[in-house]
């Protein structure tokens, strides 16, 4: 009951906002073409949790898509039609994600869906998108080891975030000892497996790697921080690679600060801590701890400054932060618009075929490209936390890094590639020249 | 010869003229180094720190300390560098001349972790003889950490003059750290260094001893025995530390559960919205801090003291409201109470999410709750210590209230035998409402404390509800002392299991143990006895 009503409220709200924003234009159009029904809009599904544990992160992404649709409609929409957002609330409930996805595609007949955050929600909707043949844009950094025909991954694969971050620590900070700390679920476990293999390939001994998992929402970090301190006192430069998820980071960093672990002694590089997460903490004790992303709000480019200004005006909040998954949605949305305009149709099959090769500018000054494996090229930045809750970029990759669907570090996947252009296969084995298909 | 004179004079004048113009370029290594700060390049900055620190120039200290605090401004266009004083006055970093204002194009020289270490090391050797005792101690410690050979002279100089005992010890340790890594130090010096570090006996000494690399055989042997003795003493300390962590976790569990011990334990209401009362208390703290930040910044350190009574009132009032409007119709129907309060908890969460937004809210730590102090070889953080004291105080007050006040007497009477109490003239429904309000209010107080260590988000309550029920059931329903013992037992057991089994398995193990325990003793640790149980 609750979720149903939230859905209705959200949907009607978005429609109202859309109407208000484009009222003038609509009026002008209506006078020429006469009153038209809602059939003449292209529907865009937004599948992000607006309640429950993930609401903290996903609500912003819902707003991002509404903002992008609003901007696109101001430019005249797509193919001469207005875009219309259909917002549903899967309520951080993984099976509900699949139900809501089905509802979006069959009932609301959306042309494309932007959504999901956690890997488990993505895995939950996958069969629905395959069965009903629709498109999902997934904007969050994830563990890789996947390439599906119906999904476009605009967030970072491990080689676009984790590996460059470790390289930076190894070269610039001369780190010899590693703590891999994460929340106990699929993304940290896979990422840490990849990192462990990578570190060992670089000659790091087993005893110099400590792996630690904690439950979701862990709040008592005393023992683990003390363990890290102990692990760091073996006479070798130590760093923590953190895949700790969202909420649990705040007490973790607080404990680090209180126990006096400074970034200059043991730096922590995080893959899930962005501007949004830092908004809830006093960042002064965290000065110098690191995060690896493909985008930071503090990056000064004309495109980024324009985006932040418009976003803050749209949300009527001059302090509203921007973050990495938001940028991924911006890129994904623009790529979809370009692909639709290229094939002059919103038919999923045509758009899926048109998307690889499409380029769209990212907000940090480069041009990202959709690859045949449905991942995109992205720059990688390492930022240090500053006192004001923003990041200061201390390092970046010289060029854009293409996303690997399958990790080269893991035995099970190093021979696999995803190629939906020539091979029409998401898990093609280049050694045996065979497509493993969906059976694996 | 003479005929050449005008030409020679001319050449001399020309070269003087050239020198005069080119002077800034030959201005000496110090000025050159200072100009490098304007390059916005981390390795240039690193080089500049080294040169400036060892230049002996009296501007070295102001420059490096300004760099540390982000007060060193550099103009990338003119390559000029300025030191902005703490009082707002600025000087040219190269010359020391006062300047009227720093140009707008100048920005603070950026640092990264590597540079912060260089800055610390540089400041350490520059401030070893500072008149301020705390600064000297800090300096000795940063030299100990960086243990660079170049600092040895400064350390020896400072040691000769130092009169304070603890700074002397710290300097001695810094000297030992340097000598241990100095390749041309004598064997005797190194053996002394090992002995000094052994006496220090903490993790940092251990780090130095394990990472010292190739050494003469006698030193390696001495170091091995020092490492052994430090490790065994640290092992004892780590047990003490686990016990402390256990007490601290226990106090958090107790604080979260104590309100539930009233609503569920004493009244028997399965209150799934208990966590949300805690959450409301945390949000009250946030609102109090917001008001203080914008209106009365000076009061920030008292924000928690102000928030405690307010949180009690907010959560308590909402508790009374809930009892009057929902729960009183559901007494004696546990399943419906459970569902109703569960629904209520969702409503409260969503209401807070709508009002305050889904993102975490920042609740700051007052200065007296930040940081830590060392007790032997363990670190005790102030926030945990205060929460432990606070929890025990709340517990004592609650116990006294139930024991010595009229309301407390009525509460006990009503919960033990409702009909008898009613026939003695106690307004039982009023007492019910007040009891529920009391339990909720105490949950609100818990929220104030928990806002200091956890996220203030709409989901705050959910992470505590299971633990709270666990504590109350384990301790024995209806018995406050049981809740106390239960919370500390679970906390300590958890913290001794965690290093062995890991956080995830540790939690599972605790749950399994509780289930087994409840099989054996269904009424918990301290079961209520007597006729009240049957009622």
UniProtKB/TrEMBL annotation, chain A:
Gene3D superfamilies: 3.40.50.2300. It holds the Pfam family Peripla_BP_5. PROSITE patterns: TAT. InterPro entries: ABC_urea-bd_UrtA, Peripla_BP_I, TAT_signal. This is ABC transporter substrate-binding protein.
UniProtKB/TrEMBL annotation, chain B:
This is Branched-chain amino acid ABC transporter permease. InterPro entries: ABC_transp_permease, ABC_UrtB_bac, BCAA_transport_permease. Keywords: Amino-acid transport, Cell membrane, Membrane, Signal, Transmembrane, Transmembrane helix, Transport. The keyword Zinc does not apply. Belongs to the binding-protein-dependent transport system permease family. LivHM subfamily. It is a multi-pass membrane protein. Residues 1-27 form the signal peptide. The keyword Metal-binding does not apply. The chain crosses the membrane at residues 243-270, 302-322, 385-406, 427-449, 469-493, 500-518. It comes from the Bacteria. Its main location: membrane. It is found in: Cell membrane.
């Amino acid at each position: 009951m609750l979720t149903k009503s939230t859905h209705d409220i959200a949907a009607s709200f978005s429609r109202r906002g859309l109407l208000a924003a484009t009222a003038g234009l609509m009026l002008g159009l209506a006078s020429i073409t006469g009153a038209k029904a809602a059939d003449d809009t292209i529907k865009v599904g937004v599948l992000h949790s607006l309640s429950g544990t993930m609401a903290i992160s996903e609500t912003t992404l819902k707003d991002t898509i509404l903002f992008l649709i609003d901007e696109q409609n101001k430019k005249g929409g797509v193919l001469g039609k207005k875009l219309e957002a259909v917002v549903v609330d899967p309520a951080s409930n993984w099976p509900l994600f699949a139900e809501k996805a089905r509802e979006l595609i069959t009932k609301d007949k959306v042309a494309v869906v932007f959504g999901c955050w956690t890997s488990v929600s993505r895995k939950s909707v996958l069969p629905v998108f395959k069965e009903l043949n629709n498109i999902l844009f997934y904007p969050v950094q994830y563990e890789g080891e996947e390439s599906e025909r119906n999904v476009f991954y605009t967030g970072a694969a491990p080689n676009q975030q984790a590996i460059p971050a470790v390289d930076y620590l190894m070269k610039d900070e001369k780190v010899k000892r590693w703590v891999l700390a994460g929340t106990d679920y699929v993304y940290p476990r896979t990422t840490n497996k990849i990192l462990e293999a990578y570190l060992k390939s670089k000659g790091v001994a087993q005893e110099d790697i400590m792996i630690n998992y904690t439950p979701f929402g862990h709040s008592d970090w005393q023992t683990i921080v003390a363990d890290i301190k102990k692990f760091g006192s073996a006479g070798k430069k130590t760093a923590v690679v953190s895949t700790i998820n969202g909420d649990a980071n705040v007490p973790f960093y607080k404990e680090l600060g209180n126990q006096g672990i400074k970034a200059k002694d043991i730096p922590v590089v995080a893959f899930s801590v962005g501007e949004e997460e830092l908004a809830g903490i006093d960042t002064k004790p965290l000065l110098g701890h690191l995060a690896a992303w493909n985008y930071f709000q503090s990056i000064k480019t004309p495109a980024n400054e324009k985006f932040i200004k418009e976003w803050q005006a749209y949300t009527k909040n001059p302090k509203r932060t921007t973050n990495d998954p938001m940028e991924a949605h911006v890129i994904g949305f623009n790529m979809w618009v370009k692909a639709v305009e290229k094939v002059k149709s919103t038919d999923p099959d045509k758009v899926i075929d048109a998307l690889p090769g499409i380029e769209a500018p990212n907000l940090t000054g480069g041009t990202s490209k959709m690859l045949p494996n449905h991942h995109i090229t992205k720059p990688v930045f390492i930022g240090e936390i500053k006192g004001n809750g923003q990041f200061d970029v201390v390092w970046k990759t010289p060029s854009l890094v293409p996303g690997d669907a399958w990790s080269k570090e893991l035995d099970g996947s190093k021979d696999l590639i995803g190629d939906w252009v020539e091979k029409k296969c998401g898990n093609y084995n280049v050694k045996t020249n065979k497509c493993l298909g969906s059976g694996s | 010869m003479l005929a050449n004179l005008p030409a020679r004079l001319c050449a001399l004048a020309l070269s003087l003229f050239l020198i005069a113009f080119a002077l800034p370029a030959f201005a000496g290594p110090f000025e050159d180094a200072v100009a490098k700060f304007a390059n916005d390049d981390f390795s240039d900055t690193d080089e500049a720190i080294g040169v400036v620190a060892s230049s002996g120039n009296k501007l070295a200290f102001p420059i490096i300390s300004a760099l540390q605090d982000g007060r060193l401004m550099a103009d990338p266009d003119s390559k000029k560098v300025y030191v902005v004083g703490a009082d707002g006055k600025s000087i040219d970093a190269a010359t020391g001349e006062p300047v009227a204002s720093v140009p707008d194009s100048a920005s603070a020289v950026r640092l990264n972790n590597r540079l912060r270490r260089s800055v610390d090391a540089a400041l350490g050797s520059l401030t070893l003889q500072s008149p301020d005792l705390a600064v000297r101690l800090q300096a000795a410690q940063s030299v100990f950490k960086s243990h660079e050979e170049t600092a040895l002279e400064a350390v020896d100089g400072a040691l000769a003059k130092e009169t304070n005992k603890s700074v002397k010890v710290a300097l001695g340790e810094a000297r030992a750290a340097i000598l241990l890594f100095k390749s041309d130090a004598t064997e005797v010096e190194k053996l002394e260094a090992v002995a000094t570090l052994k006496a220090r006996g903490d993790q940092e000494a251990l780090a130095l001893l394990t990472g010292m690399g190739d050494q003469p055989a006698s030193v390696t042997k001495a170091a091995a025995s020092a490492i052994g003795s430090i490790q065994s003493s640290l092992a004892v300390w780590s047990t003490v530390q686990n016990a402390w962590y256990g007490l601290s976790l226990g106090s958090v569990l107790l604080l979260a559960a104590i309100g539930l011990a009233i609503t569920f334990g004493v009244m028997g209401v399965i209150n799934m919205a208990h966590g949300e009362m805690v959450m409301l208390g945390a949000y009250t703290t946030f609102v109090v801090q917001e008001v203080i930040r914008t209106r009365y910044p000076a009061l920030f350190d008292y924000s928690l003291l102000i928030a405690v009574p307010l949180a009690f009132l907010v959560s308590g009032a909402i508790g009374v409201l809930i009892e009057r409007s929902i729960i009183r119709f559901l007494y004696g129907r546990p399943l419906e109470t459970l569902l109703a309060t569960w629904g209520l908890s969702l409503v409260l969460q969503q209401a807070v999410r709508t009002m305050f937004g889904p993102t975490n809210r920042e609740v700051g730590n007052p200065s007296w709750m930040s940081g830590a102090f060392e007790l032997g070889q363990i670190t005790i953080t102030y926030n945990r210590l205060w929460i432990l004291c606070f929890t025990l105080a709340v517990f004592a007050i609650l116990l006294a209230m139930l024991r010595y006040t009229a309301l407390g007497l009525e509460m006990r009477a009503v919960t033990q035998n409702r009909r008898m109490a009613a026939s003695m003239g106690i307004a039982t429904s009023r007492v019910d409402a007040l009891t529920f309000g009391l339990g909720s209010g105490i949950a609100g107080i818990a929220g104030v404390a928990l806002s200091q260590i956890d996220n203030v988000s709409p989901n705050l309550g959910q992470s505590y509800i299971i633990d709270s029920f666990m504590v109350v059931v384990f301790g024995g329903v209806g018995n406050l002392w049981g809740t106390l013992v239960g919370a500390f037992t679970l906390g300590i057991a958890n913290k001794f299991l965690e290093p062995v089994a890991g956080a995830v398995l540790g939690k599972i193990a605790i749950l399994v143990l509780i289930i087994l325990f409840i099989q054996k003793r269904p009424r918990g640790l301290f079961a209520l006895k007597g006729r009240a149980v049957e009622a």
